[in-house]
Amino acid sequence: MPAPTFAQPACSGIAAENVAAGTAIGAVSATAGPSVVYSITDGNQPGYYAIDPENGVVTTTAPLDHEAVQSSTLTITATDTTDNSTATANFAITVTGVDEPPTAGTSASLSVAENLAAGAEVGSVAASDPEGAAVTYALATADVPFAVSPGGAITTTAPLDFETRASYAVTVDATDAAGNTPRIGAPVNVTDVDEPSGPNPPKPPAPVTVDGSSASVQGVSNGFKAVGGELAYTSDGVTAAFPGVARATFKDGTLSSSAPAPWKRSSSACTSACSGARRTAAASPTEPSN
Q1: Under CATH, which number does the domain 103-191 receive?
Q2: Rounded CA gap, 76 and 73, in Å?
Q3: How confident is the model over 13-47, as pLDDT tens digits?
Q4: Contacts 24+ apart (CB under 8 A), 88-92
Q5: Fold match flag (5-96 vs 103-191)
Q6: Which of 57, 93, 263, 281 could bridge across to 27 with cysteines, CB 3.0–4.6 Å?
Q7: Phi, psi values for residue 276, rounded to 5°
Q8: How far is 156 from 165, CA to CA, in rounded Å?
Q9: Which residues contact 202 (CB under 8 A, 6 or more apart)?
Q10: Which residues pair with 233 in a beta bridge?
C-alpha cells in the first residue's frame, strides 16, 4: 500500500499575538489508505500549537507573544494506521505583533518629608512598552500637590503638612506612541518632622460675659492671678487682663465677684496687641436696672 502523500508538503499560516487558545491557524491534508492520523513531531517549542489528529487543523494552545517568538516551523507527520507508513510536511507559522499598552512595574509606596519647599523630589514611576516605544507620563489625579515630569519623576508643588494630611492616593498615566494609556498607582506618604517648639501665636480673644456678680471667660480654665490691682491670665506668653474686677476670683472657668459688683449686666470686647503678646478685655459697666 502506498505511503501517505501531502497535497502541499510546505504550508504556512499567520496568527496574531494574544489570540485565545484554540484559535485555528490552518490545516494540512494527506492522501493514503482508509485511515490517516496527524501529529506534530518537531518544531513545537514551547508547545504553543496542537493539531487535530483526524482533520489536520492546526490551532494555538495559549495566547502567543510576538515579542517572545515571531515565527515557528512545525514538522507534521501523517501516519497510515493500516501499515504505519508515514509522510511529513512543514508548516510555517508567522506570529504578527499587536500594539500593546505599556506595562507598569510594581507600584511602590513613595514618601516625602513635610515642610519641604515646592519642587521637592518624591520618587518616580516607570512602565515598559512591549514594542520598545518611548513612554511619557502625566499626573492623572486632580487636586493633589504634586507634579509629574514626562520622564516619570514626581515632585511637590507646595510644602506638605503631616498634621493636615499624612498620605495621598496619586495616579499617573503612562502613554506610548500609539496612545495606549494604562494608569499607574503611586501612593505618597508624608513623613512627620520634629518641628521646633516655641511660643504659640496669640490666640483669638476670649469672650467675656458679665451677669450679676459673676463673669465667665470662654476657653480659659487656669492661670489667673492678681496683677497691679487687676485680675490677669497669662499663658504661652500671652497676658489677658480684666480691669475693674480685682475683687473677683477665678474657679472652674468662671470669674466670681467676692462683693456685689457695681453693674447689673454688661459685656466686654477683647482687643489684641500682638506685638506685646498682651490681650485685654475691658468691662463696660451699665447702670443697674430698677
Answers
A1: 2.60.40.60
A2: 10
A3: 999 999 999 999 999 999 876 789 999 999 998 89
A4: 88/6, 88/9, 88/41, 89/6, 89/8, 89/9, 89/10, 89/11, 89/28, 89/30, 90/9, 90/10, 90/11, 91/11, 91/12, 91/13, 91/26, 91/28, 91/58, 92/10, 92/11, 92/12, 92/13
A5: yes
A6: 57
A7: -100, 5
A8: 14
A9: 238, 272, 274, 277, 279
A10: 224, 240
* 135: nearest Cα among 86, 169, 173: 173
Considering the domain delimited by 5-96, tell me its CATH architecture.
Answer: Sandwich (2.60)
Q: Measuring CA to CA, which residue among 99, 96, 97, 101 is closest to residue 128?
A: 101
How many Å apart are CA 104 and CA 252, to the nearest integer? 62
Neighbours of 204 (CB within 10 A): 9
Considering the entire predicted model, what is its pTM? 0.48
In whole angstroms, give the CA distance from residue 280 to residue 212. Answer: 21
Q: Kindly list the domain boundaries of the chain, sorted by start residue.
A: 5-96, 103-191, 208-283
Quickly tell me which residue has 514538522 as its cell: 75
Distance separating alpha carbons of residues 232 and 243, to the nearest angstrom: 9
How distant, in Å, are the alpha carbons of 44, 48, 65, 97 from that of 69?
11, 10, 6, 10
Amino acid at 120: A
What is the DSSP secondary structure assignment for residue 274, as one 8-state letter?
G
